[in-house]
Amino acid sequence: MNFKKRLISGEFIKRYKRFFVDIKINNKIITAHCPNTGSMMGLLKERNKVWLSKSDNPSRKLKYTLETVEVKGSKVGINTHSTNKIVYEALKKNLINNFKNPQSIKPEVKFGANTRFDFLIHKNNKKFFIEVKNVTLSRKKNIAEFPDAVTSRGQKHIKQLLNARKKGYEIYILFVIQRNDCNEFQLARDLDPDYYELLTKAVKRKLNVLCYDCKFSPKGIKLNNKIKFKFK
């Protein structure tokens, strides 16, 4: 996924009202949009280096959007709206071995009365639902974790994926680690024990779990290496 324009660097000051962040750019404080509803645990230290995009849309009240935070020399992508774009590009370029050479890729597919899964793949006369989760948390060196807070929405998606399995779909959760400093992925059991238990049981019922990290460049963010998933 390429950025539309080169990102602008600044220093993080504070986050408030969930979707607002103050950023210092060239000794001037600006308010930017924070496109992440999670806790962003471990990322919100004052004076952390950050990168923002700037919109040309004249109707937008907040011209800037927070895209990336640097923590201990490593970049972390926090824009959850970018995650599906990263995956979509990877699917089209056959970068995910499980879904190489698909017959079709359909984003945002409705299932049931009130659920949408991120992707529906048709391949070899099989149907695959993929639900994508953005990962930013890392509390131990080289280990990424999800979630960073209780996620009732995440629990709902697991339950609906299992319902899809009953209807003949192959089901996947793809954890996209928008970091470049982790080589292992774990569930944050202490932060959401219900999610941990639900996913653990779902794996036994043929829910497939994939984890990939990301590669950062001035031009954009791309899916990179497959990461080991370890239950703890």
Which features does this protein show?
232 residues; alpha+beta; OB fold (Dihydrolipoamide Acetyltransferase, E2P); Trna Endonuclease, Chain: A, domain 1; 2 domains; six-stranded antiparallel β-sheet; six-stranded mixed β-sheet; 3 helices; 16 strands
How many strand elements?
Answer: 16
Strand arrangement, major sheet: 3-2-1-4-5-6
The ordered H/E elements are: EEEEEEHEEEEEHEEHEEE
Total domain count: 2
Explain the layout of strands and helices:
Layout: E1 8-16, E2 20-25, E3 28-33, E4 49-54, E5 64-71, E6 74-77, H1 80-92, E7 104-111, E8 115-123, E9 126-135, E10 137-140, E11 143-146, H2 152-166, E12 170-177, E13 184-187, H3 193-204, E14 207-216, E15 221-226, E16 228-229
Parallel strand pairs: 9-12, 11-13, 12-14, 13-16
Antiparallel strand pairs: 1-2, 1-4, 2-3, 4-5, 5-6, 7-8, 8-9, 10-11, 14-15
Question: How would you describe this protein?
Answer:
With 232 residues, this protein is α+β, with helices and mostly antiparallel strands. The chain has 2 domains: 70 residues, OB fold (Dihydrolipoamide Acetyltransferase, E2P) (Beta Barrel); 150 residues, Trna Endonuclease, Chain: A, domain 1, CATH 3.40.1350. It has a 6-stranded antiparallel sheet, with no helix packed on it. α2 packs parallel to α3. The longest helix is centred in the C-terminal third of the chain and has 15 residues. It is globular, with a radius of gyration of 18 Å. The two termini are 32 Å apart. The mean pLDDT is 96.
Describe, in short, the structure shown.
This protein has 232 residues and is an alpha+beta fold.
